[in-house]
Design brief:
By secondary structure, this protein is of the alpha/beta class. The protein has 4 domains: 105 residues, no CATH class; 115 residues, Nucleotidyltransferase, domain 5, CATH 3.30.420; 74 residues, no CATH class; 126 residues, no CATH class. The protein contains 20 helices and 5 strands. A 5-stranded mixed β-sheet has the order 3-2-1-4-5, with helices on both faces. Helix 8 runs antiparallel to helix 12.
């Protein structure tokens, strides 16, 4: 008895109607499991899901799901244009003051390798009165950016959150750092007028060994000399301390253990005007980013016995940022939308018999171009290729390709234009502006240097997107 021919794989219409995701878990169960894995190890998250919902899953399934959704969540803002050069207009005015602080935290990778995860904290300063009546400066409305990368890449990656918080529109911005070059240059790119402040505890870390080295060189200091110097530095500034040190001889100040600390403080004298900063309502400590290192990074990636693959660090950081920035629902929907968009070309669409197509939708020859309503809609965009660049727009709901186009093109060989990548006219700039033709010269590809630079940034982002697409699809 002959066997029946195999059928082509298709989608069940109910899958699209219920918005199901790949895997045996329901969409809400996948969200809950990923959310739990942001706070606890994968095995604990699987046990907690079974306790709460009665759904059994393995540690490996939890790990794969979490890393996959974290990768989608990481690339979703880039693909949907969140890091574009334009910010959405809003009726609310930007805050008058912002405080930013950058620092790094070490985590362990496999093969006993330690790497630095860079973190940026953004907040709004407020002056509050303590129980004893003293004025204290606190930072509220905190949000974070965290990533395992080099300093240059981190500077580009931080642009999205800085633009979302509208730091560029604030009247005043200060940056409290430990004096590292990459921390100072981070804000100098986006806000050249940023007030740079050296972290007060970090200045104290250089002042303390300086006094110890001077004592070992033979100088005698009164009791509690360190606390007195810190009090002078905080309430009077560094000038008085530097004048005292300048009275010492050159032979003494050039000794080992003295010269490097003294040179560090002299070089950063302009960053240690703490009385002026406190009078203006600025914080003088970087506790906001120190707590961010513990809250965002170390709470999940630096547990007992944890060693991470390098490619899995940033996806987990993307999930942690969605939680700590209180944007979980927003970022989860973006990740799901990006997952469906990436997997759409690899899946077969539901088809109808050809006779039914011809009766209900008309002749195949009339379907060589997408219908008007389908052409007007757009899918959540990945970054366009170099020949298909266009200005960044707000992503809209995805629209599946017409079944008629797929049936006709597969059965009769008709070339149907793609709804995702409409042809780019050669006489127009990617932004839509018409290009001017000059007789005897080749037509320009862009209408201005601004469009050319935007296209270059999109090509660079496309390279990173292709890298993550290969990771997600592997």
């Amino acid at each position: 008895m002959a066997s029946a021919p195999g059928a082509d794989p298709v989608f069940s219409p109910l899958d699209e109607e219920l918005a199901l995701l790949p895997g045996r878990l329901a969409p809400r169960q996948q969200e809950h499991l990923t959310h739990l894995a942001c706070f606890m190890p994968f095995e604990k998250a699987a046990q907690m899901l079974e306790t709460l919902l009665g759904v059994q899953t393995s540690r490996e399934t939890t790990r794969c799901l979490t890393e996959r959704m974290g990768a989608y969540m990481e690339i979703a803002p880039m693909a949907e244009g969140e890091t574009s050069s334009f910010s959405a207009p809003t009726a609310q005015p930007a805050p008058a003051q912002y405080v930013v602080s950058a620092d790094g935290a070490m985590i362990s990778l496999v093969n006993k390798q330690w790497v630095e995860v860079r973190t940026l904290a953004i907040g709004e300063p407020t002056v509050e009165t303590s129980a004893d009546g003293r004025a204290e400066i606190h930072v509220h409305q905190l949000s974070y950016v965290s990533r395992l990368c080099d300093a240059f890449t981190f500077t580009q990656h931080a642009a999205g959150e800085l633009r979302r918080r509208r730091v560029g529109e604030a009247r005043q911005v200060c940056s409290v750092t430990d004096g590292a070059e990459w921390c100072q240059s981070l804000m100098s790119i986006y806000r050249p007028d940023t007030l740079q402040i050296l972290d007060f505890p970090y200045a104290a870390e250089h002042l303390s060994p300086l006094l110890e080295a001077l004592e070992q060189a033979g100088l005698c200091f009164p009791d509690r000399m360190l606390s007195r110097c810190l009090h002078v530095l905080k309430h009077r500034g560094p000038a008085a301390l530097l004048r005292m040190v300048n009275r010492l001889g050159n032979d003494l100040t050039q000794q080992k253990g003295i010269g490097e600390h003294l040179e560090y403080l002299r070089k950063r004298e302009a960053l240690m005007q703490y009385p002026t900063y406190r009078a203006a309502g600025w914080p003088i400590g970087s506790g906001m980013v120190e707590s961010a290192n513990k809250l965002v990074v170390q709470a999940r990636l630096k547990g007992s016995g944890m060693h991470w693959q390098r490619s899995h660090v940033n996806p987990m950081l993307a999930l942690r940022l969605a939680v700590c920035n209180e944007r979980w629902q927003e970022m989860w929907h973006k990740a799901v939308r990006q997952q469906r968009f990436v997997q759409a070309p690899h899946q077969s669409a539901p088809t109808k018999p050809l006779a039914q197509v011809l009766l209900t939708d008309g002749c195949c020859a009339q379907t060589s171009s997408p219908p008007p309503h389908a052409a007007a809609a757009s899918m959540p965009r990945t970054l366009p290729m170099a020949s298909q660049q266009r200005s960044v727009a707000t992503p809209r709901a995805p629209v599946s390709a017409s079944p008629v186009l797929r049936v006709c093109s597969s059965r009769q060989g008709i070339d149907c234009p793609s709804e995702n990548t409409p042809p780019h006219p050669s006489d127009r700039c990617p932004c839509g502006a018409p290009l001017v033709r000059f007789k005897g010269h080749r037509t320009k590809e862009y209408c201005s240097d601004r469009c050319r630079q935007r296209a270059y940034r999109q090509r660079q982002a496309m390279k990173r997107w292709e890298h993550w697409r290969l990771i997600v699809l592997s």
